[in-house]
Design brief:
CATH architecture of the largest domain: Alpha-Beta Barrel
Shape: globular
CATH superfamily of the largest domain: Enolase-like C-terminal domain
CATH class of the largest domain: Alpha Beta
Number of domains: 2
Order of helices and strands: EEEHHHHEEHEHEHEHEHEHHEHHEEEHE
Oligomer: single chain
Strand order of the largest sheet: 5-6-7-8-9-10-11
Radius of gyration: 20 Å
Strand content: 15-25%
């Protein structure tokens, strides 16, 4: 592959419903979409999952554009690259900025699978024909509303319910939900809203038979999580703390978690995500695929990744219609009875809806 042209698009898509977490509320999802063209005219698409504010990590839409324009795109234009795995090594000299790196690497995987006449899932070694799907539900205005959205999600067939929690919106919430839904697989996601001073809260959460508690402590911590894990029964799942395979190795050796959430953008791309998956499988640590309110392009990459064998827990890859009035792919991602079929078509399995992409584009720039 030799890349001749890259177009960056800034897209803005309105969510069907506001999505609230411990660090903020989203009404619109703004993100970067990359369109990469090689010398043969093959086009691949990649998506940056960075938000427009640095709530989740330090990366933002604007910092990603800067990194892409000034560093990453110049490094790949007109360079001969045989396999997407080479991108990981090529970008090694650029510290972090994983979401920007991932956007380019995802487009390379798209091109590579088209040129080699295989699906992305097959190229990664995925064996599943369908994947179990969970759903991530934002914080509602009241417990009554939270009960209602959980009930709707269960009736829609989702295999696991993730609830966002924060101080003051935790124990009573989970107690009431467990009373209403005693057998539903549920987990809590704290998005780093607590400290070790809150151990008693987590000990109380133990009584609700949760699958896991996701990222309860600081976003860059693995030491305090190890302390907390030793004092509670519920498995801790690390999210923001895991940005590389090396982070995974240290977390497992310290006993910081029992589960790991893999997000392609957070770890710098599909290649690193697969390395983390393989290592966790070797160490007996289950993984699942997290979501970042992706459009259909990023969602397609998540589906392919989740076809790998150690993704044994339902991920956050809900269907397109849960988030958008219109997605930017054809066909849109559909959930049936809690499952998504893994596409077997060449490439990422979905075609970009160019009309919708143009409709949602705020601005764009092409580099040659």
């Amino acid at each position: 592959m030799k890349i001749k042209e890259v177009t960056i698009r800034h897209l803005k898509m309105k969510l069907k419903n506001p999505f609230s977490t411990s660090f903020g509320t989203f009404v619109n999802k703004e993100f970067l979409l990359l369109e990469v063209t090689d010398e043969q005219g093959t086009i691949g698409f990649g998506e940056s999952v960075a938000f427009d504010t640095p709530w989740y990590t330090e990366e933002t839409l604007k910092t990603n554009w800067h990194m892409l324009e000034d560093f990453l795109i110049p490094m790949i234009l007109n360079k001969e690259i045989q396999h997407p795995d080479e991108i990981l090594e090529l970008f090694k000299g650029i510290r972090k900025n994983n979401m920007a790196k991932s956007a380019i690497e995802g487009a390379f995987w798209d091109i590579f699978t088209q040129q080699t006449n295989q699906s992305l899932a097959h190229a990664l070694g995925g064996k599943k024909e369908k994947i179990e799907v969970g759903i991530s539900l934002g914080i509602q205005g009241s417990i009554e509303k939270q009960i209602d959205v959980v009930d709707k999600a269960i009736k829609s067939g989702y295999k696991r319910i993730k609830l966002k929690i924060k101080p003051g919106w935790d124990i009573e919430l989970m107690r009431v939900l467990r009373e209403h839904f005693p057998d539903t697989p549920m987990m809590a996601d704290a998005n780093s809203a607590y400290t070790l001073e809150d151990i008693d809260i987590f000990k109380q959460l133990d009584e609700f038979n949760l699958m896991m508690i996701e990222q309860p402590l600081a976003s860059d911590d693995i030491i305090d999580h190890a302390v907390l894990q030793k004092q509670i029964k519920t498995p801790i799942c690390l999210d923001e703390s895991i940005q590389s395979l090396e982070d995974v190795r240290k977390a497992i050796e310290l006993g910081s978690c029992g589960v790991i959430n893999i997000k392609i953008g957070r770890v710098g791309g599909i290649s690193e995500a697969k390395r983390i998956h393989d290592y966790c499988e070797e160490k007996g640590i289950p993984v699942w695929c997290g979501g970042m309110l992706e459009s259909g392009i990023g969602r397609a990459h998540n589906i392919a990744l989740t076809s790998l064998s150690n993704f044994v827990m339902p991920g956050d890859t809900a269907g397109s219609s849960h988030y958008w009035e219109q997605d930017i792919i054809k066909p849109e991602v559909i959930v049936e009875d809690g499952y998504i079929l893994v596409p077997q078509e060449i490439g990422i399995g979905f075609k970009p809806n160019l009309e919708a992409i143009e409709k949602y584009t705020v601005t764009s720039k092409t580099y040659k």
